[in-house]
Amino acid sequence: MLVVNSFYYFLLTIITILLGQNGLLEDKKGTHLEQNANMRKKPKKTKLQDLSRLVGECIYCKEKIYSDQSFVALIKTLEPTTYNYAHYACMKADDESKHK
């Protein structure tokens, strides 16, 4: 049994040496890092927070509202749920004019 184990160990050692000389067996610090550096980088994905999406039309000033602006969603109907949109500043100005 000892002879068989040492024979397998000897074969593994020879195979490792041969693969290392032929360049088929690469160390961790060698060419793997160089190949990864040369690989094409994936383009960055645009995050949803970075996009400016069209939300709707303001019910006061009739201008388009985008997601990066300050706006209010007012429930129009419950079944199915639909919304009217307004700029926060437009709604605030209208509310102040009603209270005066």
Structure overview:
It is a single chain. The chain is 41% helix and 20% strand. It is rod-shaped. The longest helix is centred in the first third of the chain and has 21 residues, at 2-22. The chain has helices spanning 2-22, 31-38, 88-99; strands at residues 54-57, 64-66, 71-77, 82-87. Strands 1-2 form a two-stranded antiparallel sheet.
Strand content: 15-25%
Structural class by sheet pairing and helices: alpha+beta
Name the helix and strand elements from N-terminus to C-terminus, one letter apiece. Answer: HHEEEEH
Helix content: 40-55%
Question: What's the overall geometry?
Answer: rod-shaped
Rg result: 34 Å
Within the largest sheet, what's the order of strands? 1-2
Mean pLDDT: 79
Low-confidence stretches: none
Total DSSP E strands? 4
